[in-house]
Design goal:
By secondary structure, this protein is of the alpha/beta class. It has 14 helices and 37 strands. The strands form ten sheets. It has a 17-stranded mixed beta sheet. The protein has a three-stranded parallel beta sheet with strand order 4-6-8. The longest helix is centred in the C-terminal third of the chain and has 84 residues. The chain is extended, with a radius of gyration of 42 Å.
């Protein structure tokens, strides 16, 4: 028994030891990660800034994952950006996310990270002091492939309670506090040194937000700041020269005592003078000899010179106000560059020559005043150019250089007042173009969009046009999506004949008052038409008859009160939004059906599920569907007793309206005509003509048509009892009734003889029908004969025209031949004279 207990105890100890080793391994793994960091093994695409890069250039939107599915959003993204850049975002490695607190030692924090860290994100918390990231901090992370640094940004305080003091002193104090907050917001407390990335040779992605770019530390202090850094980052110029330039720096506030105590000197410093230096961290001032200051001022700052394999670079909210080619030195393989939310005003010439392989460039949310072609020279592989939210006020032919690969140009939220003709002639391969601002109306010229042969999408945010004409849209034969907002007075009858491939047309917020009957003539492929938020008060009958492919029509937020009968019948429309109109509910609106007026668009969903064999599997994208929504139902405004009631309920339940029916099936009518010809047989001259009647009834079909004679006879015969055919009298009575001939529109008199026998009456009726059919046949023969004679006459005239043109061409060739012979004679004569003169000289 004791032996068994002994073996049991030893086995238990071994088991506990093994379990302890197994439990200790993850603990040691967790110990590799510092206390202020979170570490995990994951693919590179799992990082949020990597996912932003993959989905921010229009290739793929983020999938809408079903709420019941617990999967990662990144697994459903099928972007081609990373593959195009040559970055493997599926590689698995260590991700580290670190928080930079007020008491964090940056050196100890970064050096405590495992050397195999692949993705690093450093987020600065509130209360952290000024921190500069230097080369020694990242020297142990040579395997780093993606780096994200985000400094702390102070947000402007808002009045939450709603209480605002009405005392003058308290109001002034509050304004001072708001100004102080605004001033503190300009201070960035996270900086990266020029040589901080020297050891990261494998870096592929670099994302810097709210991070200052500063020069490397030399001798315990930062070197002089040079371009392309912001002028307000460091203060390292002589105090006298600095004070003389304070008027040129509007956002710099100096104490009054400093301005009063220091002399202002406009002369340049001599070599013997000394330079006042203010350290980066706000420490004590130091004095630097002018020779050292001058030598350091000539240094060019290139913070990314060692990242030759870098593919994605983002420098956002860094307060850059001047940039130059030196900023991009050493980045020949850069794929995507983002310099958003800075203070850049001017792009110097040859700015992007160090990055010849750049595919996507974003300069949005800056202060760029003008665009010159020399600034963008050398970007032969550029696909996307984003210049949204800048200060561009005009564009011309010299604004863009030759960009042979450009596909998308964005110029939204720029105060463009003039876009001159042939502006986009150098970028005629553009497929998507977005221009305009809601605050400023852009003036477009006739040939503004000339030569854009590959353009498929055009968005004009704000413009003023007297009329939308063909000349304005000419030069874009492949255009499919057109969106125009602003003030468009009228649409010409041939405006869209130059863009026959349009599938989507948006003319909302255009102040349209009326539409002509042929406003959309030629748009046979149009599927989506948006005329909402205008001032339309009337729509002419037949306005949409030409739109044989229309599926969605938006007429909401207009001034429509009624609609013509059968206005939507010829179109295969599936959705019509008519809400927010002052409808006058009568029987004319009975044609509306909730099956197409009470529907809205529903975006497709991508559902991802976990499969044990295949991993995360996402379903294919479904087409856009329509679903019912009573919130978009059109409501009555007048009469007052029906106000705010659904039109369908009023017309079908509260009004006594006749039911109008439309037959959607096409009707065919065959006419066989015989052409007399002496040379050919009669059977060969028979020709069958098929005339297709419209598959919808005209407006006259809903009114009482005038009765013809044969119809009246049929009605009378059907209503007569059988004994009515008894002889009335032995005397025949005749009457003459006028009848309109359908073929020649002539009036003739048809005699109707009434006899005492019912059989004679029916025989007379049949005879009259035969006469009418014979007249119709003759009229058809006459029309067909006239048509053939006209066709023959046209062919003869065409042949004569061809002969005339051939004769003129022959005369032109003969003239050119004579001129050539005369020229050869002159040449021969000139050669002979030259030979004679040479012989004389000999």
């Amino acid at each position: 028994m004791k032996i068994k207990m002994k073996h049991l105890t030893i086995s238990s100890l071994l088991w506990c030891l093994l379990m302890g080793v197994a439990a200790a391994s993850p603990t040691e793994e967790r110990r590799e990660c510092p206390r202020d960091c979170v570490c995990e093994d994951a693919p590179m695409r799992a990082a949020s800034f990597v996912l932003t890069w993959m989905t921010s250039w229009g290739e793929d939107d983020l999938p809408e994952v079903h709420p019941n599915e617990a999967v990662e959003v990144a697994d459903g993204v099928k972007s081609t950006t990373a593959a195009d850049a040559g970055v493997n975002v599926d590689i698995v490695g260590l991700h580290a996310t670190c928080a930079l607190m007020a008491d964090t030692n940056l050196t100890n924090l970064l050096q405590a990270l495992p050397s195999r860290t692949m993705v690093l994100s450093v987020l600065q918390a509130a209360g952290s002091k000024l921190v500069v990231l230097e080369a020694e901090h990242l020297s142990s992370l040579s395997n780093l492939r993606a780096l994200h640094l985000q400094g702390y940004a102070v947000r402007r305080a808002r009045q939450v309670s709603g209480y605002m003091s009405n005392r003058v002193l308290e109001m002034v104090d509050q304004k001072k506090k708001a100004a102080q907050i605004e001033e503190d917001q300009q201070n960035l407390t996270l900086a990266i040194s020029e040589d901080a990335l020297m050891s990261l040779n494998q870096l592929r992605l670099l994302d810097l937000q709210f991070v200052r770019l500063v020069a490397a530390l030399e001798g315990g202090r930062p070197r002089r700041q040079t371009r392309p850094l912001a002028t307000s980052t460091l203060l390292d110029v002589p105090l006298s020269d600095f004070l003389s330039m304070t008027d040129q720096v509007p956002d710099l506030n100096l104490p009054p005592e400093l301005k009063a105590s220091a002399p202002v000197s406009s002369s340049p410093p001599e070599s013997s003078e000394e330079i006042l230096f203010v350290p980066l961290d706000g420490g004590e001032e130091s004095v630097v000899p002018y020779e050292v200051f001058k030598a350091e001022s000539e240094t060019v700052l290139a913070p990314f010179a060692a990242q030759s394999e870098l593919k994605y670079l983002r420098v956002a909210h860094a307060k850059l106000d001047r940039v130059g080619p030196e900023l991009l030195t050493g980045l020949p393989n850069l794929h995507t560059l983002t310099l958003e939310h800075n203070h850049i005003k001017i792009l110097p010439p040859a700015m992007f020559t160090p990055t010849p392989n750049l595919r996507h460039l974003s300069l949005a949310h800056n202060n760029i005043l003008s665009l010159e072609g020399e600034s963008l020279a050398g970007l032969d592989n550029l696909l996307t150019l984003d210049l949204d939210s800048n200060k561009l006020d005009r564009l011309g032919p010299a604004s863009f250089p030759g960009l042979p690969s450009i596909a998308t140009i964005r110029l939204i939220n720029n105060p463009l007042t003039h876009i001159f003709p042939f502006t986009f002639s150098n970028v005629n391969g553009t497929e998507q173009l977005f221009i305009g601002s809601r605050d400023v109306s852009a003036e477009l010229h006739t040939d503004t969009f000339r030569d854009l042969d590959s353009l498929t999408t055009l968005v004009i945010e704000n413009t003023t046009l007297l009329s939308l004409s063909r000349a304005m849209l000419e030069g874009m034969p492949t255009l499919k999506d057109l969106s125009i907002h602003g003030h468009v007075t009228y649409i010409d009858f041939d405006a869209f004949t130059a863009t026959p491939n349009l599938e989507t047309l948006t003319l909302s917020h255009c102040h349209l008052k009326r539409l002509s009957l042929d406003a959309f003539f030629g748009l046979k492929n149009l599927q989506y038409l948006d005329l909402s938020h205008n001032g339309l008060d009337e729509i002419s009958p037949g306005t949409f008859d030409h739109l044989s492919s229309l599926r969605e029509l938006y007429l909401h937020h207009n001034n429509l009160t009624t609609l013509p009968l059968g206005i939507f019948v010829p179109t295969p429309v599936k959705l019509i939004q008519l809400h927010e109109n002052p409808w006058h509910c009568t029987c004319d609106l009975m044609q509306l059906r909730p099956t197409f007026t009470n529907k809205v668009r529903r975006r497709h969903n991508m559902v991802c599920r976990w499969n044990e064999k295949l991993g995360t599997v996402c379903t294919n994208e479904k087409p856009i569907r329509l679903r019912y929504d009573n919130r978009v139902a059109p409501l009555c405004k007048t009469p007052s007793q029906f106000k705010h009631n659904d039109i369908f309920q009023v017309t079908h339940k509260r009004l006594k309206c006749p039911k109008h029916l439309w037959d959607p099936r096409p009707k065919h009518k065959k006419i066989t005509a015989v052409l007399p010809d002496d040379d050919e047989e009669e059977e060969e001259n028979e020709e069958e003509i098929i005339e297709e009647e419209p598959n919808w009834l005209p407006l006259t079909a809903f009114a009482s048509a005038p009765r013809e004679v044969k119809d009246l006879l049929e009605i009378a015969e059907a209503e007569m009892p059988e004994d009515t055919y008894a002889p009335l009298s032995t005397k025949e009575e005749s009457a003459e009734i006028p009848q309109r001939d359908e073929a020649g529109d002539t009036i003739e008199l048809i005699s109707i003889v009434t006899v005492s026998n019912g059989q004679d009456y029916r025989r007379q009726k049949e005879e009259m029908k035969r006469q009418m059919e014979e007249e119709r046949r003759k009229a058809a023969e006459i029309k067909l004969k006239e048509k053939q004679q006209l066709k023959l006459q046209l062919s003869i005239e065409k042949q004569k025209m061809k002969e005339k043109m051939a004769a003129e061409m022959e005369l032109e060739r003969q003239r050119k031949r004579n001129e050539m012979e005369e020229f050869l004679k002159q040449q021969e004569l000139h050669r002979m004279m030259q030979e004679r003169d040479s012989n004389r000289m000999i």
